[in-house]
Amino acid sequence: MVEPAATTVVKKYGKNPFLLLVSCLLSLRTRDYVSLAASIRLFEHAQTPQELLALNAHTIEQLIYPTGFYRQKTKQLHAICTVLLKRFKGKVPHNEKDLLTLPGVGPKTTNLVLSLAFDIPAICVDTHVHRISNRLGLVATDTPEETEIALKTLLPQRYWSEFNSLMVMYGQNICVPISPLCSQCPLLSLCPQKGVTRHR
Predict the structure, then answer these.
(1) Cis amide bond preceding 66, omega within 30
(2) DSSP 47-114
(3) In which element (H, E) is residue 153 found?
(4) CA distance 41 to 43
């Protein structure tokens, strides 16, 4: 099975909060294999806020293309690095409140960084976690924010961090958005297949 991009980043670079933050931002509205390749290209040139700020916008755009909204992400990366250096001495903060003050950083990115970089229990709800949790009937929610709240009441805290990586990997390989591979799913007998209209 293909593993989540964030897992690959950790294996390759360790639990580096800055690199995880950047890779997560690059992954927004972009397939994992595209964002992972872009992250690795970028990290060959910059692995700290100082090094990234030393790159001009055109260079960053070339390195992270073809991630979605690559021009916007380039501006966002420069803005985040500036804030990290001015307010946090170049370090990625390790609490939800401060992470959410970084330009363009939302709950999904915040929870992923807290979980993978700092080993702080958090549930990162991306499109895979939201979709599969509803398909399995674990939750009945309309938004990722609602899914996060519901899962926090359902899952023991010790499983929060692992849940994302498992669901992402499953969502990329088996429980895909359109026509999931239900015939290969070991959970089929337990799954109500909510929202599934066509499957293989």
Answers:
(1) yes
(2) SSHHHHHTS-HHHHHHHHTTSTTHHHHHHHHHHHHHHHHHHSTT---SSHHHHTTSTT--HHHHHHHH
(3) helix 144-154
(4) 6
Residue whose tokens read 């055109």: 58
For the chain, domains (ranges, CATH) are: 5-118 (1.10.340.30), 127-190 (1.10.1670.10)
164 pLDDT higher than 80 = yes
> What's the rounded Cα separation, in Å, for the pair 198 and 200?
7
Which pLDDT does position 117 carry in this prediction?
97
Is residue 82 a contact partner of residue 88, using CB atoms and an 8 Å limit? no
pLDDT in tens, 181-191: 999 999 999 99
In whole angstroms, give the CA distance from residue 5 to residue 27: 8
Q: What is the pLDDT of residue 2?
A: 77
Of 89, 149, 95, 87, nearest to 118 (Cα)?
95
Q: Which of 15, 12, 47 is nearest to 161 (CA)?
A: 15
* C-alpha–C-alpha distance, residues 77 and 82, integer Å: 9
